[in-house]
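Progress note, project year one: complex with 6-O-phosphono-beta-D-fructofuranose.
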Amino acid sequence: MVNNPPVTAVQSIETEWLNLDYSYQGISDAELRDYAKKKLPANFDALKQQLMTGEFENKTEQRTVTHVLNRGIHNVVKAANGKNRFVEIVRLLRSGNWLGATGKPITDVVNIGVGGSDLGPMMGAFALREFADDYSLHTLNTHFVSSMDGGQLYAVLPIIDPETTLFIIASKSFSTIDTLANVRTVLEWIKPTLTRNQWLDHHVIGVSANNQAMMEFGIPPSQQLSFADSVGGRFSMWSAIGLPIALTIGSNQFGKMLEGAQAMDQHFATTKDVTKNIPVLLALLGIYNREERGINNLAILPYDGRLRYLPSYMQQLDMESNGKQATHDNQPLHKPTGPIIWGGYGPNGQHAFFQHLHQGWDSFTADFIAVLHRAAPGFSHDVQRALREQQRLAVSNCLAHRKLMWEGYRATTADGQDDPRNTYTGQHPTNLLYVDELTPQSFGALIAAYEHKVFTQGVIWGINSFDQPGVEKGKNCAKDILAVIDGDKDNDFDASTDRIIRRM
Ligand code: F6P
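Model obtained:
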């Protein structure tokens, strides 16, 4: 086994909020430029421009793609000089001035949504908690409920009070069965305390692209926040779907997250040299690893606990967008597209799956994500120092493992023989995405960079990254099975399925 020599030339890109080191990819900038010439469509600049102006076509769903506009002209915070419903709702709830039906201030908010109506808001609210505008002395606890089986409601309902809890019903379509099932259970739970109308008038905000469905459900117009149909669910955290983030950190800080994303939009749109353009380079490296090296997976490994929900978010963003075998004009595609995305909080992964990464049989690529510095305001001097030491500990572990994964390590015994037990295979190409500090801006830039990576890969592969036809069949099949479980139909699926149904 030959290990990679230590890297001598740094390959990196620095932008206002986000940096990328791709020195451990084993591909030179000259090779990358050639590869870009081969891969990028001739009209790539025009396609990027269409994305920036909201004119890129999502042909199969017959609409355009407009999530980038949410960072600019359709910015929910800036709209109407900030005097809009979104900002007003955030202000009322965060200041303790939103009162429930019995006159008590709201203390808890439960976001009920799934997929894009859950993953982005949950990730953002968790990552940015410490940036809360401190004008708010009122404590607002935020909870997320997505699971169809009610598992999260089991945990949340006992610790909240119907009189002091507000529910965000977040669903682009307002028809997702998972979300509606959770809402139905909540409606049963409030019954001893509130009428349905009291609940709707004082304890619900609807966030959806389906205004009619929100009306039919009975949500008062002043409590409806809508966003455009042309904003895909997995690209919607910049719209009103991001309400839980704004409730956690305030509208101004939410606006800063949008600014960071907008800075990345500019970087992506205007940087011509592909070796200086973070999203384009991430896309090219990803395709190179997939097509030339045959690696079918990408691990997302954040080394900062605040980014712990990033891997699940990335699974939807990348896999729902680019896990496809047909082109946008419905021709079969005979080569692999998006990889399997997986991962987890890096330092804890070191005590779980890293053994396999270092010495197992499988090839992988990984994105390490590091935050170099962390202020720890609000703690004593000694605790601050200890916390800063912990941040340095995490970064040093991040650097150590990515180095080992690339270089490998060939161990020998005392008498000079090969020592396979202590040998590390190495040769695993990885990226390091890093920020000086995690802030709303750098967080926004990171997520926008990944969005544009997914877009770039989609146009290179010629697929539509903005639809998700592959999620429908399972939903329909589940309806048929449920009808049998509920006794409305006879069993007739297959021996295994029928047996489980009988047992139920
Ligand atoms: O089933 C997939 C999906 O449609 C995702 O694309 C979407 O983010 C999620 O379901 C939730 O959809 P909605 O926001 O319409 O409830």
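The chain is about 40% helix and 10% strand.
The domain at 67-254 is CATH 3.40.50.10490 (Rossmann fold).
No further modelling is planned for this target in the current period.
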